[in-house]
Design a protein that fits this description.
The chain is α/β, with parallel strands linked by helices. It contains seven helices and seven strands; from the N terminus they run αααβαβαββαβαββ.
């Protein structure tokens, strides 16, 4: 049996090749069973198969990379009822490595995850040579899980300056050395706008380039609507679900 690659991006590429082959086989089987190879039914098959395969790929990634951690989307009792909260779901394992490969990381960069949850993305970020890595999380229970997961993965980390801050992101003062921020649709409405405003305030205090990695970019237009960011790239493979689509923005000088 072929040995699976351990690097998340290499594994993602391997899985996409495997998924493409599975889709081809299933399409051929569907066509063989169908009385006609034309018509609406035949045209809809690829989309259904893509969604099914995307779910299989994500479950496989979770089983492979979540060993030794507990960063799943399993429901927990949260201590808050913030009006702008969204359902807790962790980012897919391949999302951040793919985005950072595009952006690049140096030891002068500071990374901040708004709504860091159980710390999956913080652990991934700390494996890169960031100057420091920060997670902001409103839930003390999730923040404590994040700290435990970071401790479990500490030997894999290049960045040794990693912290989890319990705070409402709308009230959190964005540090003036932030260069890369991550958001996986962590909140909506006024909280989202407040966070954007605080990032912009930080840039005004200390002019510099800041990149936003925005997964599941439901409020994409609100980022551009500030007039302070431009879209660098939108990422998403053939078998990505909407939850692993990513928009990368860069601040305007």
């Amino acid at each position: 049996m072929e040995r699976l690659p351990q690097d998340p991006e290499a594994l993602r590429e391997w899985l996409e090749r495997w998924a493409a082959e599975q889709r081809r086989i299933q399409e051929e089987e569907e066509v063989a069973r169908s009385p006609t190879t034309t018509g609406l039914g035949a045209r809809l098959i690829p989309r259904r198969l893509q969604k099914r395969i995307a779910r299989r790929v994500q479950r496989f990634e979770d089983r492979l990379f979540d060993r030794g951690f507990e960063t799943s989307g399993r429901a927990i009792e949260l201590e808050h009822d913030h009006p702008d909260r969204v359902i807790y779901l962790p980012s897919a394992w391949h999302v951040l490595p793919r985005a950072l490969r595009y952006i690049g990381v140096t030891d002068r960069d500071t990374f901040l995850d708004f709504g860091c949850g159980k710390g999956r993305v913080l652990h991934q970020a700390a494996k890169h040579p960031f100057r420091r890595v920060i997670g902001v999380e409103i839930s003390p229970a999730l923040a404590e899980m994040a700290r435990a997961n970071l401790e479990a993965g500490r030997r894999q980390h290049q960045c040794r300056n990693v912290e989890v801050v319990v705070a409402d992101a709308a009230q959190y003062r964005v540090p003036d050395d932030l260069t890369i921020a991550y958001l996986y649709h962590p909140f909506e409405n006024k909280t989202f706008d407040s966070v954007l405003g605080r990032v912009i305030d930080s840039i005004d205090r200390q002019p510099r380039r800041v990149r936003l990695i925005y997964a599941l970019p439901a409020a994409r237009s609100r980022v551009l609507g500030t007039g302070r960011f431009r879209l660098l790239k939108e990422q998403g493979g053939v078998f990505d679900t909407s939850h692993s689509r990513v928009a990368i923005f860069e601040s305007l000088s």
